[in-house]
Amino acid sequence: MFKIDISSTIFFLKNLKKTLFSNLFNTIITLLIILFISVAISNTFAWLLFKANWKVVISNLPLYAFGSFPPNEQWRPATWMISLLLLSIFTLCGPEWKWLRKNLLIVWVGTIPLGLYLLYGGLGLSPIMSRHWGGLTLTILLTVCSSLLSLPFGIVLALCRQSSLPLIQKLSSIYIDVMRAIPLIAVLFFGQLLIPLFLPVGIEIDRVWRAIFAFTLFVSAYIAEDIRGGLQSIPNTQIEAANSLGLNQYQIIQFILIPQALRIALPALTNQSIGLFQNTSLMAILGLVELLGVGRSILANPEFIGQYIEVYVWLACVYWMVCTIMAVLARHLEQRMTINQANF
Amino acid sequence: MEPIVIAKNLTKSYTKGLRALDNVSLKVNRGKVLVVMGPSGSGKSTLIRTFNGLEAFDNGELNILGIKIDSTHDERKIQKIRRRVGMVFQQFNLFPHLSILENITLAPIHVQKRRQIEAEEYGMYLLSQMGIDSHAKKYPSQLSGGEQQRVAIARALALKPELLLFDEPTSALDPERVNEVLDAMRRLAEQGMTMVVVTHEISFAKDVSDQVLFMDSGKVIETSPPNIFFSNARHERSRKFLNQLDKH
Ligand SMILES: Nc1ncnc2c1ncn2[C@@H]1O[C@H](COP(=O)(O)OP(=O)(O)OP(=O)(O)O)[C@@H](O)[C@H]1O
Ligand SMILES: [Mg+2]
Q1: Domain boundary, last residue among B125, B140, B161
Q2: Among the atoms of ligand 1, which is closest to the Cα of residue B42?
Q3: Are residues A212 and A322 in the same domain?
Q4: Which domain holds residue A246?
Q5: How far apart are CA A299 and CA B96, in angstroms?
Q6: Complex-level ipTM beyond the 0.90 threshold
Q7: Same domain for A145 and A271
Q8: Are residues B188 and B228 in the same domain?
Q9: Considering chain A, what is the average pLDDT of its residues?
Q10: Which residues of A touch B142 (CB under 8 A)?
């Protein structure tokens, strides 16, 4: 129940009056700002409700969601995305049984093979080439696959950078520093245009996977740095304790260092994946018809020409919504970890 | 009398010319308790950390449980020693991301390859010995210092060691928490555990130890039974140190 504390409200109003309307000049400024804000808000709403022509969004909803996926097979990506959404809701509000919580992680990882199966088809579903994938489905697929691939790669890079073997240490340092010095778009260009030239004739990796690899190469360098930060903040006494228990080097890495480094780096890692989600929109420039790409191709259609604002406002809302879901999930994860082990 | 620790002329310097250990020789037999005392910086930690290979040394010879190591710091031999020697640290050094029981079962499961159920059963037994079995599911940060140190002792015991090393196990504890840890150590000594204990707890040294070793600037000044060391120490340096301890 909401209870409004009357005395503090009055105090707040009095305070407001004191700061905003203390003299003539402040009063004028305040009034001008109020006028400006109300005009801006009413214009925005007038445009959203009356002037904008939302047909460009409404009549193309399947296109935004699935790209050019064959219409009678669109239940497949739809199933995948709905199961992701349900899983998110379940993760946030579901019951707290321990065995369930433990298996939730496996279920989350399992959504990737499920998604790939539903998209590719085979085994009873009609096969569909990746060039037909698109829209939000493709955006989410790029994000999920690249995040999941770059995590182990980033961990390995971070460990190599801490290694005592000078050659491995140098190589991984160079890799990380170079990747962090190149803009993402250049790495993506490399993935789309140059990789096919380097591969022997006859071997072909499709565009979606080339994009996923390029994102993985890029993001894992950043993840490696986040994890290195985590590794460095683990006190040496932890390694001594593990050593004196007879654990060997690999066991120490596996059971002591990586779990602690991941927990410390968790906020940074979730930021990386949200950033990755937003950056998948760069692929629109490189010819993948993901969410932004769909928007661009719809705008190229003579029927909807010139309706940029509607399309981009709509796309911004979709990106915002997915990012919010990701951020809420991330915060939930962090909170659970701190509850589990008090102030570790 | 079966010797568990034999050190011969151990010498070590961290920085050139400054000896953290200077020709240290000592012997501890099975079932005996050696207490190591000495002013800050005298090399006590360095000494007992050489016993399980956490610290290498420059010269001399060490024989732990019949395994001989020297300045070459042979990793395979050290690994063998670590499986049979437990260590308890001043700052507990529990693993913060693991529950109390997981802290204890980690090494038995992964070093000794015991079955999880078996390791957990024995872990619970050790925790009940230490009087903290009700905390098994908690995490280290949810326990008091004294409780954490008793967990650390249980963790060291989980590998069924033949020698236990303690480096100032009560120095980081509130005064009213010191006795719960010392009592646990007393019980271990009564059960015949061989222990090397760096501590400034005089009452513990008097009641429990068989020998007191006094160090200063990396050298062993004297090794005496506790009744002699505390009433009538042989060396001027030891008496001065004890006087200062009494003043605190
Ligand atoms: N990692 C190190 N690097 C350099 N010098 C060290 C290192 N560890 C210890 N020393 C030096 O070696 C000497 C002995 O240190 P040690 O920690 O063994 O003393 P201690 O008797 O345990 O002292 P305290 O009672 O303060 O724990 C000291 O002079 C110390 O400065
Ligand atoms: Mg010390």
Answers
A1: B161
A2: 21
A3: yes
A4: 129-337
A5: 55
A6: yes
A7: yes
A8: yes
A9: 88
A10: 341-342
